[in-house]
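G., the chain you wanted modeled:
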Amino acid sequence: MADTEPSYIDYEAFLDPSFSPISFANTLVTATNNPSDTPLDLSTPLSRVLFDVQEIDSHIHTLSTKAALPLLTHTAVRTAASQRILQHVSAHVAALTDNYQRLESEIIQRHATAVEVHTAAARLWHTVKIGRAVSRCLLLARQLEAQMADLLLLPAGAAAAPRKEDHRGMVRAASTLHTLRQLLAASRPGEEGEHLSRVAVVATLQAELLAPTEQRLLTRAQQAVREFSTSALAPTGAAPAPAGTYAQTEDTKARTTAACLALCFLSPPPPPDRGGEFQPALLLSALQTYLQTALTASLASLARALATLPTLPRTLLEVSARCQNIVALEALLATTQPPAALLAPRDASAAAGDATTDLLRPLLAALDTASLPSFFWRSLASGLAGRVQEIVGRGGVGARTLRSQRERVRESLRECVVRGSQGAEGAQGGWDREVGVMVGSVLGALGR
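Predicted structure as tokens:
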């Protein structure tokens, strides 16, 4: 347009993408005014802008007047084409509307109904799942009550007439309690025990049956371990050894074995960071308490006997008897396999092919020792040295007698260690170190 009709307006400047109205206005003002004048005269640049607008408007009017017929023809053609497209599209839109209405009636409405049915079915399935879990929980609780009645551990009047105790019943009851505890602990989404804690009857069951039963079982098992004794030794001049018959000894072993297995079931599960490794915490605590009780009693009696030497033979016989009980306990634990239900899958497969997997290993690992008799004698010697120093420090007849009878004490201690370790591995000449430790703890404090 600028080429056909000359114009003083710079259309290229207005059409430039970088055109800025602010810069253009500033140029007009500075071109028609002296920057030092105050105030500025804006009428001249404003008139320039209005004149340019009128010129462009006139130019547009001239062009539209000359090209009116082509513009109207072009507009009519475009309008007719739009009408034809609209008619064609309207037919397709109507067909799509009919198809959508048909799909809505055949699919969408049915889908909405199906969603409602699915929601109802899912809720019913969750209800049935919770009902089955509660039913299994109550069944296990009823089974536990029957097993506890067989053990005669229920309150007076709740069980039948007294009868011979079934030691394996303790294991069965502990296993049932362990299964119940697993069921209640499986409370994560999707697990069997999910939402069980929100059921009132289950909460009542936990408070009135499971917790008291677990405490009674724990007390019974700990008592059985605490009272374990199979030694046939008796002090010189006393009545015949009260070791009992073979049947009584086997009954003691069976009771202790059942108590150990029950404590395995009652022990809390291992933390997740241990990967399910077998760690019977309650069993280890009961066994360590048993060993500590034997050590404490032996240390106290030996300290008194060393102060009054005439009682030393009887005391050493009692210490030997305690060590023989520990030897018997070690043999019992070495032949007792842990319950397969408590082992991780890899541990269970290893236990199936390895006969050395037993209850003794965790105890030895916890005590950091190779054998229980060795732990007994070394622990006893470590505590005995201080007691002997106290006797020597007090002086008097007891200290002088102890020094004068040092050879007798040496031989008595050696016989005590050998006699108490009978039946353990290495008992024939294999306890020289323990003998040396015991003898050194007593005679070392006496000096030369």
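The first helix runs from residue 11 to 15.

Shout if anything looks off.
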